[in-house]
Fold this sequence. Notes:
mainly alpha; Ferritin; elongated
Amino acid sequence: MAIDPKIQAAINKQINHEMTAAYNYLAMVVYFDQINLAGFAFWMQKQHEEELAHASKLFKYLSDRGGVVELEAIPKPSAKFDSVAQVFEAALAMEQANTASINSVYALAKEMNDYATLSHLQWFLDEQVEEEKTMEETLGLVRFVGDDKSALLTLNNQMANRQDEGEGAGG
Ligand code: MG
């Protein structure tokens, strides 16, 4: 069954959201590189790659359904942050906005009785629960560490251990 143009437009918008998130995470890599927190930079690099994978997954889905992928412009991200905590506040806000965005695509697919899209989006809904949880936990840790530079360096070392998705705990 051909994909509805409204769903196609919503998925194209979501592809742009994922690419925008990817680009914003890359800007966070820039920030961590600048302040020499290599573990945090590595962690954010993985996050960046995850978002690229999300965009690719939607790209492939739309293409598999015979839809037309339209790539829109990605806004310029800011790499200016005042603190590590501020980075994770921004990351959490971004994930919350992305959850709302996926929810709206889901609601549209539900309204249009597009069961294949609902099924595909299920994975994204589950992923968003993970993403928000991870950002909340990390923000909590960063706030707990506060001004303790020694503890921040320990956390920086831990962040360097992030595994690729599906390879272990803590994605
Ligand atoms: Mg994503």
